[in-house]
Design a protein that fits this description.
14% strand, six-stranded parallel sheet, 206 residues, alpha/beta
């Protein structure tokens, strides 16, 4: 694909570079989460009081508008190649799917698989609550450089049993396995989220 960065960005929308994490991320509007939008109304769930609907994400209209541009872009025919071209140009080792928002459909998920295959030197991590889509995907079909973590539903609850990788949320600092709270809220040199060797990661509720 012989397109400049400006042309590629017109296809995909912009990327974000969260200060907490290494590399770049791609966020969608949390208001459009299939499962998360339902959980957000239920106290005690990990989505109740959703961080992606408040603070920085809701304070600036431009952030929300950019998320909806990205949401619309995933249906474009050139989206996969444009995404891959940009990710490769970043020359980063890690990429996170959806610092806000979630998978929209099986078709969307399969497109992400194609992006991962076209960016073989990058490790991809995707947390998701959309178990209904994962149930239709054989684990061995997932690109080797992508890890999908099924997020637990309830704070201080367990993770889904059918999927090999997961993440949970706790209110107990002693049970948290993510080191970020002790590192100024940053990953620093930790890459547990991107490692298939780590079956579950427990985040401290914030």
């Amino acid at each position: 694909m012989h397109m400049n960065k400006k042309e590629l960005k017109l296809i995909t929308g912009s990327f974000s570079k969260p200060s907490k994490m290494p590399g770049y991320s791609y966020g969608l509007p949390a208001w459009e989460c299939k499962t998360g939008s339902k959980l957000a109304k239920i106290p005690g769930t990990v989505c109740f009081g959703c961080y992606a609907k408040r603070g920085f994400y809701s304070m600036y209209k431009g952030v929300k508008a950019a998320q909806y541009i990205r949401l619309k872009s995933i249906t474009k025919p050139l989206w996969v190649r444009a995404m891959a071209a940009q990710i490769n140009s970043f020359k980063c080792k890690e990429f996170r799917w959806h610092d806000a928002g979630d998978i929209q459909s099986i078709k969307h998920l399969l497109k992400i698989f194609k992006v991962c295959k076209l960016t073989p030197t990058v490790k991809h991590w995707m947390p998701t609550k959309e178990a209904q889509f994962l149930k239709n995907i054989p684990v061995n079909r997932i690109p080797k450089n992508l890890i999908i973590r099924l997020s637990g539903t309830n704070v201080d609850g367990g993770a889904g049993k059918f999927w090999p990788w997961s993440s949970t949320v706790t209110t107990n600092p002693k049970k948290a396995t993510c080191p970020a709270p002790k590192q100024g809220g940053k990953c620093l040199d930790c890459r547990k989220c991107w490692s298939r060797k780590i079956k579950n990661i427990t985040y401290l509720k914030h």
